[in-house]
Write a structure and sequence with these properties.
225 residues, alpha+beta, 3-stranded antiparallel β-sheet, 12 strands, globular
Length: 225
């Protein structure tokens, strides 16, 4: 039984080695410390340097597309510009410009092979994002993407073992049928290095946190037509 096709998701254990996960986490933390990113996030205006763009106002880079195609890594601050949900989250676009070797640590071609075999379709990488969740207690509710056919590959960079650590959640089968019962709601606890694949046309969300911080790396794939 193909869970990705039938249920809308598949959870793969221990795909990425802990050595690679540790390297990614260490380099992210070094970048934040060496560039004093928190000070830039505390500003009331956008902060632009030769190495990165901190999007505090959502005025110039006011869409996913603009952030995705900017020439620098874009650090989108969800605690700013009057956002209500996801306050405390940092969404980093153009991660390959921040961590140039990311495709060496996590081989996109292997992920594409997995998707192609599971779906019997051809896919292409749209973007890679890094999500940092720092005690985000008001996350977006269950929602689905209603534009192009998309599969999200989420790599856990930290262990998420308990409900208050904010696991991913998916409502089984809703990529095909939006009518559901509570028994179809599934939460996904895991370890650093695990991967969660899911159709974004299905209802999904990240659950709220309480006194926790975790990182996830997100590869967005779209159907290659």
């Amino acid at each position: 039984m193909n869970d990705l096709i039938n249920k809308g998701y598949v959870f793969l254990k221990s795909v990425i080695s802990l050595e690679k996960i540790d390297q990614i986490n260490n380099d992210i933390n070094k970048f934040f410390i060496n560039n004093n990113i928190q000070a830039h996030l505390n500003k009331r205006e956008d902060s632009i340097t030769e190495h990165f763009y901190v999007n505090n106002t959502f005025n110039q880079l006011n869409s996913f597309v603009k952030q995705q195609h900017y020439y620098l890594p874009v650090i989108d601050n969800r605690s700013s510009h009057d956002r209500i949900i996801d306050k405390g989250m940092i969404d980093i676009f153009n991660v390959h410009r921040l961590i140039p070797y990311i495709n060496e640590l996590i081989d996109v071609n292997i992920l594409l092979d997995i998707l192609n075999k599971l779906t019997q379709k051809e896919w292409k990488l749209q973007r890679i994002n890094l999500h940092i969740y720092n005690n985000v207690n008001n996350t977006n509710n269950y929602h689905y993407d209603n534009f192009e056919e998309t599969i999200k590959c989420t790599v856990y960079l930290h262990d998420i073992k308990e409900l208050n650590e904010g696991p991913l959640s998916f409502i089984e089968g809703t990529h095909k049928n939006k009518h559901f019962s509570n028994k179809q709601i599934k939460h996904f606890y895991g370890n650093a290095g695990d991967i969660f694949l899911s159709y974004q046309q299905g209802f999904h969300r990240k659950l709220p946190q309480k006194n926790s911080i975790n990182y996830i790396l997100v590869f967005n794939f779209i159907n290659k037509k």
